[in-house]
Amino acid sequence: MSATGQDRSSRWQDIQKGLQFIQSTLPFPGPQEQYEVFIQSLVRNLFGEGNDVFLEGEWTRSVELYTEALNIAEYAESEDIIISQDLKEKLYANRAASYLNIGLHDQALEDSEKALQLNESNYRALYRKARCLKEMGRHQEAYEVVAKCSMAVPQDTRVIEMTQELAKMLGLKIRKAYVRSKLSNSDMSVPTIPPIGMGFCTSDGTFMQDYPPQLDLAKNPLADTHEFKQACSSCYIKTGPGVLDYAYHPEDHKCKKDLLLGRTKHSELITWKLIRPRPTKNQYMGPYYICKDVAMGQECRYLGHCTFAYCQEEIDVWTLERKGFICRENLCDPHGFKPKINLTVPKILQEHHGIFMFLCEVCFDHKPRIISKTNKDIPGLCSHPVTKHVFEEKKCLVHYLRDKTIRYSKIRPYFPHCQMDLCRHEVRYGCQREDFCFYAHSLIELKVWMMQSEKGITHEGIVQESQKYWNMDAELPPALRRFGPSNLKMQFVCAQCWRNGQVSEPDKNKKYCSAKARHPWSKERRVVLVSSIERKKWTTVRCLPTKKPIPAQFEICLHVAAGKKCQYIGNCSFAHSTEERDLWTFMKDNNIADMEQLYEMWLQSQKPGWSEESSSATRDNGKQIHMPTDYAEEVAGNHCWLCGKNCNSDKQWQQHITSEKHKERVFNSEDDQNCWQYRFPTGTFRVCERFLKGTCTEEELCKLAHGDEELKEWKDRREFLLMKLAKARKDHLIAPNDNDFGKYSFLLKDIK
Questions:
Q1: Of 273, 302, 382, 433, which shows the fewest CB atoms inside 10 Å?
Q2: Where are the zinc fingers (C3H1-type) (predicted)?
C-alpha cells in the first residue's frame, strides 16, 4: 500500500474511533486541553476525508462527511470548544461545491450564503452562489453576485463567461475589459489566484484541482491482493451442483491453460474460483453485481449466458479489464507489464461501426441539442438556420451511428489528467459536470482516448482515417466487400453438394446450383460456410438457436471443447466452433433472426453501392424501412439523444417530448432494472404494519413497503429517478409546464 493510502487508512480509523467516543457518555481520559485538540482533530480529519472522496467523484459521500464535520463543530461549541471560523467557512463552501455537482441547487445556495456570512470576500462561495441563482432562473440576482466575484478575480475565464452570459440575458451592454501590462518579477510579486470553477480548498488553504490523481498502470494492480492460475477442464473439475462447486487438481497432464482461476490472498476461503470472460456484447456500463441466484446458493437460471458475476474475484477482474488497466493473459505474472492495446481507427469502427465526423460544438451543446454540420452555401459557417457559427473554431469530434435509431457520441479532447474509465454518473442519470468531467462519457470516447494516449493522433487525423476506411471499403469489388464478422469470410453453397465433398455456388439466376446435377437453390437446400483468418478452413454454421431469452454471449459446447462429439439429442444451443459462435453473435447484434434473412443481406452486399451503413436500416422482417427522420441530420434541428430522433420543426419537437414513449425513456432503461431487487415504488413511503404482523394478504398489490429494506430501496429509487428528471429538464427534453408523468408522477410529491 502506498504512503498516501496508509495515511488515509489511519485517518479513517481515527475518525471511526473519534465518532464512537463522542457518541458515548464516557469521560475523556485527559485534561480539557487534550479534549479540545481531540475534537478539533476529528473535524479536520472529516474535512480531509471529504476532500479526498470529492476528488474521486463521490459527491454524495463528501456531503455526508462535510455535514458530519459541521455537526461536530456545532457540538463542540456546546462544549465550549472553539472551531476556527476559517475551517467552518471552507466546510460550507466545499459542501456547496458537492451539492452543485449533485444538482441540489437550493442546498448549495444555502451553504454558499453561510460561507459568505463567515467571510464575505470568499470569491469561490460568490461564484457558486451565482451558479445556483442562475440555475434557479434568478438571473438578476445571479448577475449582481457574479459582478462582485468579477471584481475579486477579474481575469478568471469562468467568471467572465458567466458575467457575459447573464449580461446578454438581461440585455446589458458588454464592455471590453482593460488589461494591464505585465510587470517583471523584480518589479512586483503578485500571488496567483487559481481558477475557481474546478477545485476546492484544503484545511491549510491549499487550492486543489478536483480531478483524480494519475495512476501507475505499469504493473498488475491486483498483484498485492489476488493470485491467479491458468487451468483447463481436466484439472478444474466440477464437484457439486452449484456454479461455484469446483475443485482444482494440479495433476500431471498436458494442460490447455484455457481457463483463468483466481482467489483473494489472506482469505479464509482458499479455493480457486473461475474467472469467466467479461461480457462485452451488452450495452450495460454500470458496476458489476453478483448473480442473485448464486448469492442465494442456488443454480444460475442462465448458466453459460449469465452476464452477472459469480464471485467477487470476477467483479475485481472485470472492472479493471473494462478500464483497460489489466490484461488477463498477464495476470498469472504478479508483475506483468500492461501491454499496449494497439487500437486504431479501423479497429474501433469494425467493432462499433458508424463514422467519425465534425459537428458544430455550440449547436451540439445547446439545450436541446441541435445537429449542425458545415453550411453548403458558406463552407466556413455551420448549417444553423439562424445563428451561423464559425465552424473551424467551434467544431467538435462526434461518432455518428445510424442503427435502429440515430446516435451521436461526442468525443471530447484528450488531456493527460483524463481517467481511462467510464463515468458512473453519466451511464446512470447523466453527469452534471458534462464536458468538465475527467471520465469518459461513452465507450467509444474511452477507446478514442486510449488510442490517443498511445498514438497521439489528432481529431483531424481520426476523421481522415475514418473517411479513408469507408472509402477503401466502397472501392472493393462486390465479391470482396466486407459483410459479417470482421474475422470471417462467408459464402453460401449447395448443401447436397457440400455433403458430397463439393463446393457449388448458385447460378446467375439463383434457381439452381452450378453443379452438373443442378440441385434446386432454395433455403432448405443451401448452407452457409465461414472461414476464419486463423484456421483458414471452411466450416458449416447451424441455424441460430431459438432459445429464449437469447443469451448475451454464446459459449462453446463443453463436449466439442473437449475434442468429443456433442452428446446432446436435438439442436444444441451451444456453438460447435469459434466460427459458429462469432457468426451467431454477429446475427444477434444485428437483429438477424434466421439464415434466410442473413442470405438476403449477404446478397445485398454483393451488389454495387452496398455499404454497411445502409444495411443497418434492415429490421427483423428483413425489409429495409426508411423513416422520414432517418436523414434529418442534413437539416439543423433539435435532436433527442434519449430516443435518437431528429425533429425539424418546433411542432414536431413538442409532439415528441410530450409523447408517452419519450417520457418512459426519460425514466426507464433496460440497464436500470439490474440495480433493483424489490417492487417499483407505489408513492406511499411507509412500512406496512400488517406485513410486520404477518397478516398482509395483498402481497404484490399492497401499496405499502414490505419491510425496511424495501422502503430504503424505494427512497433510493426515488432519488435516482429525480436525478434523471433533473437531467431531462436541464437538457430541455421535458416541456417546462409538463407534470404528467403517469406512474412516475409520485416524484413531484413530498415524502410524508
A1: 302
A2: 422-444, 551-579, 682-709
